[in-house]
C-alpha cells in the first residue's frame, strides 16, 4: 500500500476544505467576528446621540462594501447559530444596508428622496433590492417585514432599526451582538422612549413617536400600550393618561445637518 507524502496530505486537506459548504464554514464564525468591521465603523462614525457622519462614512465606503460582501458570503446558519445571533445578524445587515443606500445618493436631505432605477422604472429606497444574503436579494422592507418582524416577533426591533431620519430611533454606535442582544435592545428601548426629541412623557399625558402608532399591532393600544411603555419609561404613566402622537421628521439624520442647526441657535 502506497502512503501519501506529507505534501499530498496537505493538498488533500486544502481541497476538502474548499468543498465544505459555505454555510458550514459560516457556522464556525462567531457573531462578534462577523460584524467586527461594522462595529468599528459605527464606533467611528456615529455620534453619542445617534446621528450619522455620512461624509466620514464615504471615506470608509470600501470597508462598508467589504463588510456587505462578507455578509453575502455568510448567510445565517439556522441550525448552528442561536436565535439571538440570527436576530443580531439581520439587525446589523439592515442598518449597514441603509447607510450604504444613503451613501450611494449622498448628499440627500431625506431617505424618501432616493429613487433606485430598475428595469421597469424606479423603486423607493425601502422597496429596491439593497443587499444580497447568500443567493437572495433583499429590500429593506423585506428584511424588516419578512424576517425581523415575522420570525422574531420582538417589538424592540423598531428601536434598533435605523430609517435614516431625524426622529427615527438613534443608531447604536456598536454592532448588535447575539451574546448581549437582550440588554442592547432593552437599552435602546429606554433610550428612545425617554429622550424628549422622540417622546414626551408625563404621568397624565404622553406624546409619542409615530412609531408607536404605525406599529400599534405590536405595541398595543390603550391600557396595553401604557403597560408596555411603563416597562421602560422613567416616568410612571397612569393607565388613564391621554395619548397623542408626534409628527415624524423624515429629514436625514446627518451629523453635518445637526451641526448646522446647532450653529444657527
UniProtKB/TrEMBL annotation:
**Species of provenance:** Hymenobacter daecheongensis DSM 21074
Q: Which domain of life is it from?
A: Bacteria
Q: What is the protein's given name?
A: DUF547 domain-containing protein
InterPro entries tied to this protein: DUF547 (IPR006869)
Q: Which Pfam families match?
A: DUF547
The DUF547 domain extends over: 80-193
Amino acid at each position: 500500500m502506497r502512503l501519501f507524502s506529507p505534501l499530498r496530505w496537505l493538498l488533500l486537506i486544502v481541497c476538502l476544505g474548499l468543498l465544505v459548504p459555505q454555510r458550514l464554514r459560516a457556522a464556525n464564525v462567531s457573531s462578534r467576528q462577523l460584524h467586527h468591521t461594522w462595529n468599528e465603523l459605527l464606533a467611528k462614525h456615529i455620534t453619542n446621540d445617534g446621528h450619522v457622519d455620512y461624509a466620514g462614512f464615504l471615506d470608509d465606503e470600501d470597508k462598508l462594501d467589504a463588510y456587505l460582501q462578507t455578509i453575502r458570503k455568510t448567510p445565517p446558519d439556522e441550525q448552528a447559530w442561536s436565535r439571538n445571533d440570527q436576530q443580531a445578524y439581520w439587525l446589523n445587515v439592515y442598518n449597514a444596508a441603509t447607510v450604504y443606500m444613503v451613501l450611494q445618493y449622498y448628499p440627500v436631505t431625506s431617505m424618501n428622496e432616493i429613487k433606485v432605477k430598475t428595469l421597469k422604472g424606479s423603486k423607493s429606497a425601502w422597496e429596491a433590492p439593497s443587499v444580497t444574503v447568500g443567493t437572495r436579494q433583499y429590500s429593506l422592507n423585506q428584511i424588516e417585514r419578512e424576517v425581523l418582524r415575522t420570525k422574531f416577533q420582538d417589538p424592540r426591533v423598531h428601536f434598533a432599526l435605523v430609517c435614516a431620519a431625524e426622529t427615527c430611533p438613534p443608531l447604536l454606535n456598536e454592532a448588535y451582538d447575539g451574546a448581549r442582544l437582550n440588554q442592547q435592545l432593552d437599552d435602546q428601548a429606554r433610550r428612545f422612549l425617554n429622550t424628549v426629541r422622540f417622546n414626551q412623557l408625563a404621568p397624565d399625558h404622553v406624546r409619542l413617536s409615530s412609531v408607536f402608532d404605525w406599529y400599534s399591532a405590536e405595541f398595543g393600544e390603550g391600557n396595553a400600550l401604557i403597560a408596555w411603555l411603563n416597562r421602560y419609561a422613567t416616568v410612571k404613566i397612569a393607565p388613564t393618561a391621554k395619548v397623542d402622537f408626534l409628527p415624524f421628521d423624515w429629514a436625514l439624520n446627518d451629523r453635518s445637518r445637526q451641526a448646522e442647526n446647532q450653529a444657527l441657535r
